[in-house]
């Protein structure tokens, strides 16, 4: 309690306060997260104390857990007003001390702006979040990173916290003071309402919404539907680390022809680029074609990891070989050797099964002369393909004068049937986009780990398979399954770099970006040349606002695989998110040159043309999308073509193309919203309503899975506003604004929500803000519900 504000004879102002016996809130938090109801009751008492100070024109400026006393009588006292700011009525301010503790300073104070009562409200929001989570919501590895997060990043996830309370915290922690609670009284009104609901929930469990899990705030604009983070939309061919080569069978004879080629290579090592071609499948009882197909991927992965610390060997990804349909050495030099880092060598092989026995025949060929560098055969009487593969890797390493990495563990299965199932799964996962393939892969992998419960690589691949299944279906149970199998893999061997990459991506999908970065960093410690880990790290840097660092890291990933189209594709998607459309087009054109029949690249390129806002690019977008559909009719191509026709007001064609997209994939809320728009512009409301309902159901699932996904929050708010659910809509609006306050798409959706809720003034305000942040009048005009805003005479488009 403040007993008085007095002035000493020397003119120094001081505050007379009571002495309280008890413990600090920081001591309480040190024991672990505070239960939700208890945290709210403490926060409310703090807010009452601050409100009293604010009413006396005093700003505390150092609200933090160590300045909150929990007395033995159960009351909460705000102490240490020694750093307070006295606000004199004429507007003159007098500081009573140093500026305060930086960890609890608001963004405007870190920018050296003047403090006001909203700065105290920010600090109270930090304290409340810290009580609920047990840690500071912006805590990073060092002070500089923490201060950067305070100014630029969204607060950490609040697990097991009701959505209504999350919205209160997010609003208190809005970066802009104008979007925060303006007074403690406003905050108290909301928090006391939630307190009352929580107390009621003790006797009626359904009185408040159920807790929701954590999330991600980065968003693509609607038009860049196909310019996806392709690491998640296209299966990465995993570069599994080489296992130990103990217990090898006696090797077959090795011929080197001509011998001087090997000796020259030994004496004068040169950078080598090697590609594994598809295996021929022969013998009296040919092996399952999927096994032969998976062997190509597996051998490519193992060659990639011969010497992770060296740059002397680059392995062309199996996906590139397949996309260019290279199956003969004569085609390899033409199609893979034409690039500046094209394949200098190819591995051509055959797998032959006679009865139980399996034989691998391998030839290493120099692509520029088509001369044979060497060849060998390895055979196993019980059909152990894994053993034959490891023998082959060792022999190829000798031919290429590439050192092996003896420190890497053995993660493969020694049980032939288990390894064959694993290879079949690799084949199915390569085209996981085809209906049923992912389920077939999971079935094979389940069989593999059942036959060999110590098969670490099998568990790791199961984790990745379930992560991809989540990407397809957006069902949270698959993320849970992915985590279970990744943890099993790590329990067997914690040096599996690809598992850490998968875990990083899972954390990114769930919005836990700091955990994701930790996993990617660990993966890179295990394998500094893991381009997938680099791309994951770059995504984390981008999310943290470290745009320049992210760009450099994306480019490092490309340098490791310069002949792999997806590196350029991923960098292009990054440039789209930064609205650097010309740079994005340049990267995607390079990806198209590497893979001229790659529909994903065409779709992404079309997405950039659609997003540029330049009228002339719409024609280019239509040409590219039609070319993509000509190569292969795909969901992204139809979805983007439908959106293009929406832009051109060709509503009948828009509805037709969007329906075709939904026949291939019915799990994207944006595409259902596009169908809704097309039908409404056509006046077919009876068809529009089911599309809206489907979009809302998908959005509720998306927000449940990832509550910090600003895009999903904004779109769900819009759906609730359309149904007249005012309270639910406002929770989504406030959450989306707290997570992504400057995103033009979010601002446009917020405007639309306010218009549906009947607050025309706020609708005008946020529409104008969206234009300032990069939205266009054409973008707004595509929304049937924005007619009144655009027609308003007071709408300022400048």
Key attributes of the depicted protein:
Rossmann fold, seven-stranded mixed β-sheet, alpha+beta, single chain, Serine Threonine Protein Phosphatase 5, Tetratricopeptide repeat, three-stranded antiparallel β-sheet, 15 strands, 798 residues, Transferase(Phosphotransferase), domain 1
What does this structure look like?
With 798 residues, this protein is an alpha+beta fold. Among the domains are: 21-207, Transferase(Phosphotransferase) domain 1 (Transferase(Phosphotransferase), domain 1, Orthogonal Bundle); 254-410, TolB, N-terminal domain (Rossmann fold, 3-Layer(aba) Sandwich), CATH 3.40.50; 709-798, Serine Threonine Protein Phosphatase 5, Tetratricopeptide repeat. Helix content is 56%, strand content 9%. The chain has 35 helices and 15 strands. The strands form four sheets. Strands 9, 10, 11, 12, 13, 14 and 15 form a seven-stranded mixed β-sheet that branches. The chain has a three-stranded antiparallel β-sheet with strand order 3-5-6. The chain has a three-stranded antiparallel β-sheet with strand order 4-7-8. β7 (85-87) and β8 (93-95) form a beta hairpin. α10 (289-304) packs across α13 (385-400) and α31 runs antiparallel to α32. It is globular, with a radius of gyration of 30 Å. 51% of the residues are buried. Mean pLDDT is 76; it is low at 82-100, 203-269 and 337-342.
């Amino acid at each position: 309690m403040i007993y008085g504000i007095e002035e000493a004879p020397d003119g120094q102002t001081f505050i007379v306060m009571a002495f309280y016996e008890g413990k600090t809130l920081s001591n309480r938090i040190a024991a672990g997260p505070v239960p939700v109801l208890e945290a709210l009751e403490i926060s409310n008492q703090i807010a009452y104390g601050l409100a009293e100070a604010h009413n006396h024109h005093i700003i505390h400026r150092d609200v933090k857990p160590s300045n909150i006393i929990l007395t033995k009588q159960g009351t909460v006292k705000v102490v240490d007003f020694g750093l307070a700011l006295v606000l004199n009525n004429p507007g003159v301010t007098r500081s009573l001390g140093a500026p305060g503790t930086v960890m609890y300073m608001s963004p405007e104070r870190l920018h050296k702006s003047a403090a006001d009562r909203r700065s105290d409200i920010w600090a109270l929001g930090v304290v409340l979040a810290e009580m609920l989570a047990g840690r500071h919501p912006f805590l990073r590895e060092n002070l500089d990173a923490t201060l950067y997060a305070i100014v630029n990043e969204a607060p950490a996830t609040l697990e097991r916290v009701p959505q209504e309370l999350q919205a209160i915290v997010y609003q208190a922690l809005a970066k802009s003071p104008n979007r925060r609670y303006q007074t403690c009284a406003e905050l108290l009104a909301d928090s006391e309402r939630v307190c009352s609901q929580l107390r009621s929930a003790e006797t009626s469990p359904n009185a408040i919404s159920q807790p929701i899990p954590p999330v991600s705030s980065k968003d693509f604009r609607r038009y860049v539907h196909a310019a996806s983070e392709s690491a998640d939309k296209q299966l990465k061919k995993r570069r599994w680390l080489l296992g130990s080569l103990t217990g090898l069978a006696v090797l077959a004879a090795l011929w080197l022809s001509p011998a001087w080629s090997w000796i020259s290579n030994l004496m004068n090592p040169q950078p080598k680029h090697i590609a594994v071609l598809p295996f021929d499948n022969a013998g009296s009882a040919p092996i399952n074609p999927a096994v032969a197909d998976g062997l190509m991927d597996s051998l490519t992965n193992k060659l990639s990891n011969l010497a992770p610390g060296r740059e002397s060997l680059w392995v062309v990804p199996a996906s590139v070989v397949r996309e260019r349909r290279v199956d003969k050495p004569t085609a390899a030099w033409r199609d893979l050797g034409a690039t500046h880092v094209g394949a200098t060598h190819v591995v051509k092989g055959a797998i032959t099964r006679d009865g139980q026995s399996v034989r691998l025949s391998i030839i290493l060929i120099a692509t520029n002369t088509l001369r044979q560098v060497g060849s060998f055969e390895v055979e196993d009487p019980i059909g152990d393909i894994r053993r034959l593969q490891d023998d082959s890797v060792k022999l190829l390493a000798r031919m290429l004068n590439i050192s092996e990495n003896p420190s890497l563990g053995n993660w493969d299965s020694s049980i032939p049937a288990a390894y064959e199932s694993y290879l079949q799964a690799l084949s199915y996962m390569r085209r996981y986009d085809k209906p049923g393939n992912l389920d077939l892969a999971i079935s094979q992998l389940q069989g593999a780990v059942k036959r060999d419960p110590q098969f670490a690589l099998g568990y790791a691949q199961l984790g990745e398979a379930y992560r991809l299944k989540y990407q397809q279906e957006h069902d949270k149970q698959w993320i849970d399954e992915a985590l279970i199998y990744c943890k099993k893999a790590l329990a067997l061997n914690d040096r599996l770099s690809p598992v850490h990459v998968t875990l990083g991506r899972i954390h990114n999908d769930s919005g836990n970006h700091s955990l994701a970065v930790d996993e990617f960093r660990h993966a890179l410690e295990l394998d500094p040349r893991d381009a997938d880990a680099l791309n994951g790290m770059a995504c984390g840097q981008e999310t943290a606002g470290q745009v320049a660092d992210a760009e450099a890291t994306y480019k490092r990933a490309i340098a490791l695989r310069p002949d792999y189209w997806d590196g350029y594709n991923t960098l292009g998607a990054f440039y789209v998110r930064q609205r650097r459309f010309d740079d994005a087009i340049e990267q995607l054109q390079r990806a198209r040159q590497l893979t001229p029949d790659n529909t994903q690249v065409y779709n992404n390129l079309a997405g950039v043309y659609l997003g540029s806002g330049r009228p002339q690019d719409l024609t280019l977008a239509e040409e590219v999308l039609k070319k993509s559909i000509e190569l292969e009719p795909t969901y992204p191509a139809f979805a983007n073509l439908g959106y293009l026709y929406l832009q051109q007001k060709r509503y009948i064609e828009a509805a037709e193309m969007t329906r075709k997209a939904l026949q291939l994939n019915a799990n994207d809320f944006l595409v259902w919203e596009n169908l809704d728009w097309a039908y409404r512009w056509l006046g077919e409301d009876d068809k529009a309503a089911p599309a809206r309902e489907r979009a809302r159901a998908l959005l509720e699932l998306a927000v449940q899975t990832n509550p910090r996904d600003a895009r999903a929050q904004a779109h769900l708010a819009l759906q609730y506003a359309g149904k007249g659910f005012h309270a639910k809509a406002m929770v989504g609006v406030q959450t989306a604004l707290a997570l992504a306050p400057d995103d033009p798409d979010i601002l446009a959706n917020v405007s639309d929500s306010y218009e549906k809720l009947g607050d025309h003034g706020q609708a005008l305000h946020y529409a104008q803000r969206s234009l300032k942040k990069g939205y266009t009048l054409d973008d707004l005009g595509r929304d049937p519900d924005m007619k009144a805003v655009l027609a308003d005479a007071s709408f300022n488009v400048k």
